[in-house]
Design a protein that fits this description.
- It contains 13 helices and 11 strands.
- It is of the alpha/beta class.
- Strand 1, helix 4 and strand 2 form a beta-alpha-beta unit.
- Helix 1 packs across helix 9, helix 4 runs parallel beside helix 5 and helix 6 runs parallel beside helix 8.
- The longest helix is centred in the N-terminal third of the chain and has 14 residues.
- The chain is globular and about 50 Å long.
- The structure holds iron/sulfur cluster.
- The site of iron/sulfur cluster has 10 residues, from loops.
């Protein structure tokens, strides 16, 4: 099936769910099997700092959200988590934080160098940086950088992310690619007020960016945020269609399978949500390296909840996939 135009995407979005599962999802899953060997990629994830200077309208960690208890893990503690992840068998690590200018870029470089010495594939999501900083990260041994565009319409982006602007974001995305880092990017699916046409535009931009990983999830409201007052969770059904379309448009990329199911209280580790995503063509799950007490406060969305390696292995068994570390 060809998914190339806005109309192609909108046709799939409008398709009855049974037809989607019998056609688009089957093709997406088959493509993953033929192109990538049906592997489920397991990644250790560490939200090492939940302090953020920004005010994104949808994010629980926005600077003015007093409901969140803030923490910042020292570099030594981050590296200890890396050691534990290595002992558990992980070869990939994803470090994520709010935009915290006080963490110190030198500390980030030291962490990356130390993890690189342990042969990790290192993905980072620490916000917008200068052109030179992406190059320094690459030189220190980072492999991939996550900078989502979240919404591809300039005016919507500028409203939702008032601490930055669309042109700056797109310039940053270009710098990441120029630095030689792999680019992970994508959008929020089905946030309040989003039209099918806007969602289709987001998918086409994701394709055009030449990404390595699509960290896609549906909109999930976070308490204490302005956008939570405008509407509830995004449709998990639409999100599964997005996953399959991304797989068909870009067979070799990684796609997040850490997805919610119908019971949102189970967060992103809902076995049914994860399994549906794997069966729709997604291929990547995360084990949270944060202690539970802190994980509750890494709250970009409510009920974020991810689980450990046992969960990843059980999902792989149920989806008849092999785990790749
Ligand atoms: S989405 Fe990122 S940059 Fe925006 S408030 Fe949340 S943590 Fe900060």
């Amino acid at each position: 099936m060809n998914i190339e135009s806005k109309k192609d995407v909108m046709d799939v979005l409008a398709m009855p769910q049974t037809e989607f599962w019998n056609t688009v999802a089957v093709e997406a899953k088959q493509l993953h099997r033929s192109e990538n060997g049906n592997t489920l990629i397991a990644t250790a994830m560490l939200g090492f700092d939940n302090i953020c200077k920004n005010q994104c309208l949808y994010c629980g960690m926005r600077a003015s959200n007093a409901a969140v208890e803030r923490y910042r893990l020292e570099p030594d503690r981050v590296l200890r988590s890396g050691e534990i992840a290595a002992e558990m068998g992980f070869r990939r690590i994803f470090l994520i934080s709010g935009e915290d200018p006080k963490y110190g870029f030198e500390n980030i470089l030291k962490i990356v160098e130390a993890l690189n010495a342990k042969d990790f594939f290192i993905s980072l999501a620490i916000g917008e940086l200068s052109k030179n900083q992406y190059v320094e990260l690459k030189n220190a041994g980072a492999d991939e950088y996550v900078l989502k565009f979240e919404m591809s319409q300039r005016e919507v982006f500028n409203r939702m992310k008032p601490s930055t602007d669309y042109d700056r974001r797109m310039k940053g995305i270009g710098w990441i690619k120029e630095s030689g880092l792999e680019l992970a990017s994508g959008s929020i699916v089905d946030y309040p007020g989003q039209t099918a046409e806007q969602l289709a535009e987001d998918l086409l931009l994701t394709r055009d960016l030449g990404i390595s990983w699509a960290p896609v999830i549906p909109y999930m409201p976070a308490k204490g945020t302005p956008l939570a007052l405008e509407g509830g969770s995004g449709s998990t059904e639409k999100n599964l269609k997005v996953i399959s379309m991304l797989r068909i448009m870009m067979p070799r990329i990684n796609i997040t399978a850490q997805q919610p199911g119908k019971d949102l209280s189970k967060g992103l580790a809902d076995p049914q949500g994860n399994l549906d995503a794997l069966n729709a063509g997604a291929n990547m799950l995360f084990a949270d390296m944060l202690p539970d007490a802190l994980a509750r406060n890494f709250s970009v969305v409510d009920n974020r909840i991810t689980l450990g390696l046992d969960h990843i292995e059980s999902m792989a068994r149920e989806a008849f996939m092999s785990v790749q570390f």
